[in-house]
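Researcher: Quick sanity check before group meeting.
Model: Go ahead. Protein one:
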Amino acid sequence: MSVEARPIRFYLNDRLTEVSGVAPTTSVLSFLRQDQRLCGTKEGCAEGDCGACTVVIAEIAGSELQTKAVNACIQFLPTLDGKALYTVEALRQSSGDLHPVQDAMVKCHGSQCGFCTPGFVMSLWALYIDTDGAKTDENRVREAITGNLCRCTGYRPIIKAGRQMFDLPRVVFEREGLKSKLAKINATSGLEYTSRDQRFFAPRSLQELVQLRSDYPDATILAGGTDVGLWVNKQLRELNEIVYTGSVTELRVTEKSAFGISIGAAVSLTDAYAALKSVYPQMNEMWERFASMPIRNAGTLGGNIANGSPIGDSMPALIALGATAKLASIRGTRGLPLESLYLGYQKKDMAPDEILVSVTIPLPTPELKFRNYKLSKRFDSDISAVCAAFAVKLDGNIVTSCRIAMGGMAATPKRALNAERVLIGRSWDESNLRLGMAALSQDFAPLSDMRATADYRLTAARNLLYRFYLETKPVEPLRSTDVSVFA
């Protein structure tokens, strides 16, 4: 198996499409609007924030067909190879009727100025086909549109439309037929696409990936594109060689064993958090608040980890839980504790030819107390001012193990080693907890920026530790003197 020089092949609104001659960094949005004249997909922010450009992608994952809403503005066109792309133009029925999603938007007056409407429709359509047209609750409707902004403040009728679309005559999405068509265009070899002095590689195996990394150590590694897409759109960077990890089979696997949950570097944030939530339900709120649905669908846990941003929301929880990272090169593989991967701001303990393969998170034990908190100005789709995770093991009331990790407090995601040392070996009570809170000032000297001041961050970090204590402290037995007895 090897990469093959050939055009990009995918289905666009059920029509087989081959593309060559366009730059590999051409966004899906630009291709749709400028090359295909499919102008229902809008450009609002060009950074994956507003949802006006939302489209739906279908691909074969294992033996199943997976559909997901993503932002077209930050997806590079070659990442569509072997997949199917649907825009709002595809929803019109062969009879000329509107799809139930569109019909409900009309009936509920969900469109006001109309600019954002196609994006909302596609997000709701992704939910509709995911549930096979079966009615779901309002929470799922709200979750489906977390990546869509309406500047006319028309959310109430849009949510109403998202609920009413299930009451209209059902339209079936033909999954099996699409799977058959995608199977025919999914070549056994990966993609090598060259245009305008730029090269895009999409290997299918880990062996091919590490070889390409060795051959092109300065190439940009592309996962979900939720960060790299902005390099091109906002920073106007020229990317010469790009190596895409999204087609590598070994990087798309999630496995559970006695050692923990191993999540491949190309597993989407949606799927990764679902796997983590199954064993750590305490991460449910973080899962819901980590960016928007289209960003979680496109972005990967491995990309978030390898990026190493000090405000990346996934790292504090993983570090607190004692996660380990697996790296690979043509020389072999090695593992290291996740916190050891980060050496400084945007500096990592990775050789130029190394690739992140997976991250393994230990399974919970009965004595483990764990929480993950996020503080931000908005509940949805906002960058954290402070992201904190706490993992404490108790023997009776004695702290035998303590791991505290925070994001937004330093140049890297970082453990609070001084606070940990203060707490380990002591009883889990308020007086010792206060000592740990005070020790946080020795661990962190945060900066002030547009999201929070340094004083706020430090105060918030201490208060989050206190909140963790209140939620996990041993419950004292009720004394008879605490009970009022009525005759």
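Researcher: Fine. The other one?
Model: Protein two, sequence then structure:
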Amino acid sequence: MYEITTTRHNHLVDSTLHAWSWQIPTYLFLGGLVAGMMLISGYFLFKGRYKENNCSCYYLPLFSIVLLSLGMLFLFLDLEHKAYFWRLYTTFQITSPMSWGAWILILVYPALILNILMRVPKPLINKIPKLKNLSDEFLKHPFGIKITGIINMILGGMVGMYTGILLSSLGARPLWSSAVLWLLFLVSGLSGAAAFVHLIAKNVYERELLAKADNGFLVIELFVIAMLIIGLLTSSKSHMAAALILLSGPFASSFWVFVLGLGIVIPLIIQLLAVNHKIHHTPVAPIMVILGGLILRFVIVAAGQYSHWF
């Protein structure tokens, strides 16, 4: 029975990546973005920033639910055997990344809803007035709010790691066969989320804080990309060939120009100047970071399918 169930799980994983498509990298990007937003929102809850009326922790969960649902829709659309997706929820396979991801994504929704209950949107309160009393009662318990923040951070971190582990578990592609791919996707998701919050935050302190944090994330992302490339170049010939696909092969221009240049280095320089008050903060750098994170997923997924062992 275990072998049959495991085979079904592997078949579902294979069907999500049966051919290059835009749905999978977009899903991975949205998942990473939501993971980063959950980590940021959870951190703000834990640190007590919910006491600020314009704290981003009040509206980030709304964005997260919409973006995560959109990402899961894209994943469903890419499945080759859509009628069997429900089998993921009939069991839990500890060795299957797809099984872990499916259950983690289900747990994310209650955590986000719990966060939303701290300040229920007015249209919903107008329809269900009792939610206002529930929200007011929730805010009277700081310990419960901190626990909510911790839960959001834990689940956010798990979602961010899962987006990378999902690819690295598929050993048929040498480019994905890296122990740091999960870390790259996690840091990239955090960077994209920090840029997004920097872009939309109503609180000036949060905009400044997240611009500084994003600079740190971008530096770490450069370091992780370097570790990924070095790890591939110092491994087998197939891994070396996979690295060269990014460095000098068909995806080199996208990798060097859009991922590294426009997605990391240039926005990092702009934001370093901005946080040191050399220039004014503008939406340019955050938008570049977000687009760079999206292109990173497209390049990794496409180049990975282009790489092979022989």
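Researcher: One line on it for the slide.
Model: The CA atoms of residues 223 and 269 lie 16 Å apart.
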